[in-house]
């Protein structure tokens, strides 16, 4: 689009059009122009860049169905499938019977050929007042075990990465469905109109890619905003085109006002148009993000002690540490859902071979940053109403693949929660004596989603969206809330 005016006379035109524009924008398409104009006036008045602009509309905060224990959530996603029997679910009989055949039947469908039982290379030790065991892979996280609610009986349905990732993120491994973060934004809105409500930092582009943070048929404003991707260092993860080198903010504002006015006429004729309204919303958010996003990502504001706490001073931990620190900055600025992903194209957590080398490398990269993040949330009094979720798309088998690896295992694995109204120092559920199948208080992925929504004040059976003639929900037609894990 051509420039509406030159920078030389922009201020004069702005002064003349100000009263007219304010009236126009109040009645413009779905109010997005007026929303951004209010944010601009607030900034001109010297308001803090992270202040909340009180508005109505699809992105406004919404009342939950239930009393909420958590206001926000961070998902620490370990792509590839960390082994539960080597991290948070010790199995003494696995150590005793290593090298022997599994004494019961394998699943009907397995991902690859499996051998005999394989003991864990790592020793488990009890920690904290709770005495919960954690393996030597996570010495720093183990110091916070009294904050962890360890879910030892999670299970899914798909042994392949692509299907399992989609199941965990969207509730379906067969169809394109809205992601967990999108459902939360749809149900709760946002607490900061100048930042996305749903941010995913360095997400993987494989195994479902954008569908893992997409909004599918939900309104477009529920879409996750990716910052970088797993193939980039987190230091290079930026929102693209965050600065406009050609136009001033006032000139951009006038362009958006004109677009809003033109589309107001279009909507009068066409009626409601969700796709158009979503685009208008994204234009306005992008405009506001030009000032708020660079500030949110500026880690130079953090003290050296804080950066060291996250491991940013160490080449081994600096990449994931930076992601975790960025996540904390987004959470405290009102972002509803933040995901950080630990993944690389070579190792991930997918140790079909070289279990010891691969899991050692991965754990050493995330252990200190996660512990630092938990401590930082506690120090800032944020952990009590922030739900922290850790885990991968599945676990690993207690049987060997080759001589020193483990296969995919969706039939029983471990995730953990912290904060957000969950019981700390608590283990929920159990796998069998070798760690293959969920056995006690089984928690299907649908149950996990139902529980997450409940902690954030949403009834998973009431959080529905009508599309193609039926009501959809994150948990489909299943899901039970695990109330025993709630403090």
The CATH architecture of the largest domain can be given as: 3-Layer(aba) Sandwich
End-to-end distance: 55 Å
Helix content: 25-40%
Topology, number of strands: 17
Poorly predicted runs of 5 or more residues: 1-55
Task: Give the class from helix and strand content and strand pairing.
Answer: alpha/beta
- The radius of gyration over CA amounts to 24 Å
Any idea of the CATH class of the largest domain? Alpha Beta
What name does CATH use for the topology of the largest domain?
Alkaline Phosphatase, subunit A
Explained architecture:
The chain has 487 residues and is an alpha/beta fold. The protein has two domains: 83 residues, no CATH class; 350 residues, Alkaline Phosphatase, subunit A (3-Layer(aba) Sandwich). It contains eleven helices and 17 strands. Strands 1, 4, 5, 6, 7, 8, 11, 12 and 15 form a nine-stranded mixed beta sheet that branches. Strand 2 and strand 3 form a beta hairpin. The longest helix has 25 residues. It starts with 9 loop residues before the first helix and ends in a 15-residue tail after the last strand. The N terminus is likely disordered.
């Amino acid at each position: 689009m051509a420039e509406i005016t030159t920078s030389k006379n922009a201020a004069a035109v702005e002064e003349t059009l100000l009263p007219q524009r304010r009236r126009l924008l109040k009645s413009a398409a779905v109010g997005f122009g007026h929303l951004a104009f209010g944010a601009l006036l607030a900034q001109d008045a010297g308001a803090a860049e992270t202040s909340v602009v009180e508005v109505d509309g699809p992105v406004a905060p919404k009342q939950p169905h239930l009393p909420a224990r958590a206001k926000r959530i961070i998902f620490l996603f370990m792509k590839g499938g960390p082994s539960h029997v080597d991290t948070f679910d010790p199995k003494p009989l696995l150590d005793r019977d290593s090298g022997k055949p599994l004494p019961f039947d394998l699943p009907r469908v397995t991902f690859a050929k499996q051998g005999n039982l394989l003991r864990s290379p790592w020793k488990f030790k009890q920690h904290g007042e709770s005495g919960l065991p954690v393996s030597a892979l996570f010495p720093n996280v183990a110091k916070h075990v009294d904050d962890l609610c360890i879910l030892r009986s999670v299970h899914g349905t798909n042994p392949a990465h692509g299907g399992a990732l989609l199941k965990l993120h969207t509730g379906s491994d067969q169809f394109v469905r809205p992601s967990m973060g999108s459902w939360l934004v749809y149900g709760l809105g946002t607490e900061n109109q100048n930042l996305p409500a749903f941010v995913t930092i360095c997400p993987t582009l494989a195994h479902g890619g954008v569908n893992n943070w997409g909004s599918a048929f939900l309104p477009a404003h529920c879409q996750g905003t990716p910052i970088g991707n797993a193939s980039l260092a987190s230091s290079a993860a930026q929102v693209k085109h965050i600065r406009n080198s050609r136009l001033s903010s006032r000139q951009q504002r006038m362009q958006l006002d004109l677009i809003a006015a033109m589309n107001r006429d279009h909507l009068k004729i066409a009626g409601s148009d969700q796709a158009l309204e979503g685009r208008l919303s994204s234009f306005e958010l992008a405009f506001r993000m030009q000032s708020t996003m660079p500030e949110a990502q500026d880690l130079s504001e953090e003290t050296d002690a804080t950066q060291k706490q996250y491991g940013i001073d160490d080449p081994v931990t600096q990449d994931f540490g930076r992601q975790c620190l960025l996540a904390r900055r987004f959470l405290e600025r009102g972002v509803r859902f933040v995901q950080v992903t630990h993944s690389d194209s070579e190792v991930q957590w997918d140790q079909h071979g070289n279990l010891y080398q691969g899991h050692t490398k991965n754990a050493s990269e995330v252990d200190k940053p996660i512990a630092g993040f938990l401590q930082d949330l506690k120090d800032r009094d944020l952990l009590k109403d922030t739900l922290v979720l850790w885990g991968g798309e599945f676990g690993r088998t207690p049987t060997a693949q080759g001589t020193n690896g483990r296969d995919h295992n969706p039939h029983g694995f471990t995730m953990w929660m912290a904060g957000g109204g969950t019981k700390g120092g608590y283990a929920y559920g159990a796998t069998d004596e070798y760690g293959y199948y969920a056995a006690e208080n089984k928690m299907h992925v649908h149950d996990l989603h139902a529980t997450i929504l409940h902690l954030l004040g949403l009834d998973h059976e009431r959080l529905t969206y009508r599309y193609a003639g039926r009501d959809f929900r994150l948990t489909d037609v299943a899901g039970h809330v695990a109330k025993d894990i709630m403090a």
